[in-house]
Amino acid sequence: MKEKKIFDILEDAEYDSMNRLFEKCPEISDEQLDRIYTMSEKKFRKMKKGAERTKRDNNIKMTDNDTVEGVERSRRPVWLTTLSTAASIVLIAGIAVGSTVMIKGNKKITNTDSQTPPAITATTLTGTSSASTQMDNAVIKTTVTIVSGTSGTSDAVVTQTVTEPASEEAADTEFIKPYVGRWRYQTSPTNHVHYDGTDTGTVDIFGDATYTYTDKNGNISNGTIKNHTETIGGSEIFGLEFSGDTFAGHIAYYTDTDEFHFGNGDAARIVRGTNSRTYAEIAIEKMDIFTETDFLCATITDREDEVAFVENGIEYHRVTDLSKIGSMSELRERLNSSFTGEVKNFFTGELEARFKEKDGVLYEADGVRGSFGFDTSGGVYITDATENSFTATTYNTGFIEAQGRLSAVFVKENGEWKISSYSYAN
Amino acid sequence: MTSRELTDMMKSSPVACHKVLVKEYGRYVYAIVYNKLRGCGTNEDIEECVSDVFADIFMKCEFDISSDSDIRYLIGTIAKRKAIDSFRSLTARAGHFAESDEDEMMEFVSDFSVDEHVDRSELRRVLLNKIDELGDPDSTILIQKFYYNRNSKEIAHDLSMSAVAVRQRCSRAMDKLRAKLLEIGITL
User: Fold this and answer.
1) How close, in Å, is residue A24 to chain B by CA atoms?
2) Given CB 3.0 to 4.6 Å as the disulfide criterion, which of A1, A371, B30, B162 pairs with A298?
3) How far is it, in rounded angstroms, from Cα A92 to Cα B52?
């Protein structure tokens, strides 16, 4: 915490210091930049609309010597007028009724009956005035009721104000709240989007049940979202109905909180988070780890020339570049989470022999061989997919037989996808 | 990029121009806004303010701002002003200046001392110098860890290192920085 405190001094920096801090500023992810761009564009359009309205009104005059004359028209919310009117009516009615009641209350009781009558023995509605207004999706209903006793000796005024937040509009946008945020729109060429779907664009869902879709080329389209519910075979199915023809269908059906599918097929969906990654995305990540690991076995890492120690006749050098492998525990974790079976055994045997860790320092023995990795730059296609296994094959048009891996078989082990075997090109 | 280049780009495609601006200067604006709002705003507040800055810049682009000067200065100025506005709004919302009577206001006034301001500025410069003396990647790791509040995994990803290596380097770099500051009489 102390460390953090001294770094607080860097806040509110001047130009020179600011530039130095900027140099060390982390890269901003494309996703974050897209989000900022979408928000900026939305705000900009709103500002531009306001500026254009003022310009259209032609109320502002600017002269060459920077003098501005005129009146800028500002638009008050529509509900404000209605609210003010309703409030005035209620106030006037209140004063009028209140005055009447007070005047009547001052009159002497002329009843000769010895028994004092109850103030109100039965209620009789003699007059009701009500006003309602809408504000921010809430309806405020004010009812003024004059109730008089049977004896006619006294009247009571009951003013009741009821706020009804559950207006139709509020209820209409309430359904969208759990789904507000950024989603990825994925489509599949083989109608198996959760196997081989690829990102086609991003969908930003907003709290007012509107959305903005940005495709890969930066084209933006906007629209609204409606709550969609249908009953099939007695089961209620929930969905989001998107306006416009932006997506593969209008209705995206709920699969789980992070996944909605368009239509009955499996051709397109919107997803968020990492739980809904496609088989193709998982395969590329693990195949790349395979390639890195194989490369680690095949090459010599940056290290000191001097021999640090000799064990069983093998010379070990201290590793200086810890970017590829930081420690043996990190390496074992990588092998455990990405490989299984013969692949894991193969890498474990080779790497445990190459690397040793002593007192937190990593050492490496000599060993160079050919490396055969996957080329995932063109993507992969998925076959033989089930809930627990699938095969991923690289789209590698320039593939030369026996110069790289082509397919990998994945199996699910303890909830994690791992490469269990691989094959060369046929 | 100069204002003239920007104006030319606006004429051909405003959307493309906006995108280029965000891509080119997003990090710069983020760094400025972060510097002001680091202590009082969340990540969402910072992103919100950055988007406000770009909305303002897009509005400016609607008018002819042709000149040969680098628009980086214009963007820097807009970012700084917007960040100050956001800072005031956020601190006011947090009740930092709520219910201040006359005596309290006097305290705020007396809080600002020119000497203190100069001292703080000098301390900032010294600290940055000492961090720079550590060299890369140690200086980057320290700034990103303690100033930009990033975790080791994120830093490791950017620097192509392992998270364990980042943690080790960070710990050693902090020891070195502590020693360097101690030499000039600053203790952590």
Assistant:
1) 6
2) A371
3) 44
Determine, yes or no, domain membership for A312.
yes
H or E segment at B23?
A: helix B14-37
Residues of B in contact with A26 (CB under 8 A): 144, 148, 150, 154-155, 158
Q: Is A398 within 8 Å of A378 (Cβ atoms)? A: no
> What amino acid occupies position B148?
Y
Say if residues A315 and A306 touch (Cβ distance below 8 Å): no
Same domain? A202 vs A264: yes
Pair A419, A290 in one domain:
yes
Residue in chain A nearest B14 by alpha carbon: A41
Instruction: List the domain range (segments joined by +) for residue B44.
Output: 3-93
User: Are B59 and A47 a contacting pair at CB < 8 A?
Assistant: yes
User: Nearest by CB to A322, which of B15, B161, B174?
Assistant: B161
- Classify residue A387 by its DSSP letter: S
Nearest CA in chain B to A1: B146
Nearest C-alpha neighbor of B181 from the set B142, B152, B136:
B142
- For residue B63, tell me if it sits in a domain: yes
Residue A87 is encoded by which pair of tokens? 């409030």
Name the domain boundary from A271, A299, A324. A271
Mind listing the pLDDT tens digit for each residue in A195-207? 778 888 999 999 8
ipTM over 0.90: no
At A212 the pLDDT is 92
Instruction: Specify the pTM.
Output: 0.41
Query: Residue A18: is its pLDDT beyond 50?
Result: yes
Listed in sequence order, the residues at least 6 apart from A162 whose beta carbon sits closer than 8 Å to its beta carbon are A140, A141, A142, A143
Distance CA B81, CA A269 (A): 42
Residues on chain A touching B174 (C-beta within 8 angstroms): 3
Q: How far is CA B12 from CA A26, A216, B4, in A?
A: 32, 20, 13
Q: How far is the C-alpha of B106 from the C-alpha of A152, rounded, in Å?
A: 63
Of B18, B52, B146, which is closest to A41 when you measure between CB atoms? B18
Q: Fill in the DSSP letter of residue A216.
A: T
Q: What's phi and psi for A276, nearest 5 deg?
A: -100, 25
Residue A283 and residue A420 share a domain: yes
A209 and A318 fall within a common domain: no
Contact call for residues A410 and A391 (beta carbons, < 8 A): yes
Using a CB–CB cutoff of 8 Å, tell me whether B5 touches chain A.
no
Inform me whether the C-beta atom of residue B9 falls under 8 Å from chain A C-beta atoms.
Answer: no
- Same structural domain, A232 and A132: no
Phi and psi at A248, nearest 5°, equal -65, -25
Residue A262: beta bridge partners? A252
Phi, psi of A264 (to 5 degrees): -85, -20
Q: pLDDT tens-digit profile of A255-304?
A: 888 888 887 677 898 988 776 778 888 898 898 889 888 888 888 888 88
Inter-chain residue contact B31 with A22, CB threshold 8 Å? yes
